[in-house]
Amino acid sequence: MKKILALVTGGFTGESAVSLKSATVVEQHLDRKRYEVYKIYIYPGNWYYESTTGEKFPVDLNDFSITVNEEKIRFDGVFNIIHGSPGEDGKLAGYFDMLGIPYTTCDAQTSAITMNKGYTKAVIDGIKDLHVAKSIHLFGKRPRHTKKVLEQLRLPYFVKPNNGGSSIGMSKVKAEEELEAALDRAFQEDGQVLVEEFVSGREFSIGIYRSGGKITVLPATEIISSKEFFDFEAKYSPGVSEEITPGRMDEREAERVTHIAEEVYRKLNCKGAVRMDYFLEHETGRFYFIEINTVPGQTETSLISQQVRAIGKTLKEFYTELIEEMWH
């Protein structure tokens, strides 16, 4: 008997376009012998399933079901691929928890904490061998913020919306006079902003997931961007950044980051597949935490997809593992 699966996509933020791309790939690679799949679009005030003929069937929010040709369809589980709100910030997880429907991503508490870059850094601070760049967490736009940053941090800085994703609203500040505009840009995206001292190092991203009760750390990808940093354009435009999987680390570095990644996954109580971004500092060889994505992109060229292929697994096998894990 096939399990009935809702593949949820869309979302309430600018990242919905990326979510739709990820969902298209996931849909292509799901095991149809095991699962009957319905793609559910979630937009503000508009949750629906669209049939192959283009007919839209609304979702009954009382029990997250759909009625197609007079047949009521309930779901055994949810494959969540919504980046940003409400799929990555805990709102959707809390809703599914109340209905008792399992899902492939982190629980509501972990999703909410990890969506907040400042809080995440506070939780993972203290993990052996993992360093955190000096930063200031700003709440609400205030004129005195600029002075506070200039007094407490040394240039250059990264200025980023605290709860944003896909690097929208993020800037690198090299001179004092650029700070004001960078803060304005970040505050347009979010009421909280994180300003971090710049770490000079090579950038990597590493996937981590749990399957059969065991945590697997995938090979890291090294990101060489022709841009100043791995911004929205570098992430989603072909040719702007070069990605090497597995990234160039010696055996000891690869071993150390595997331990670090596993510990971060445990300490944040993650579920499903997540992606941790980090710097390997040039002078010291120290690992610096950048951020964690609890609903990482799943397009064909996404970092996780590259890393899964690097260990000789197909995306179909990988997605099956993620789905089966949510029922354990």
TrEMBL record:
CC cofactor: Mg(2+); Mn(2+)
Catalytic activity entry: 2 D-alanine + ATP = D-alanyl-D-alanine + ADP + phosphate + H(+)
Keywords carried by this UniProt record: ATP-binding, Cell shape, Cell wall biogenesis/degradation, Cytoplasm, Ligase, Nucleotide-binding, Peptidoglycan synthesis
Molecular function via GO: D-alanine-D-alanine ligase activity
Recorded metabolic or biological pathway in which this protein acts: Cell wall biogenesis; peptidoglycan biosynthesis
Domain ATP-grasp: 124-324
Enzyme Commission number: 6.3.2.4
One Pfam family here: Dala_Dala_lig_N
Compartments (UniProt record): Cytoplasm
The protein's enzyme class: ligase
HAMAP family, A to Z: Dala_Dala_lig
Task of the protein: Cell wall formation.
Family named by the database record: Belongs to the D-alanine--D-alanine ligase family.
Protein name: D-alanine--D-alanine ligase
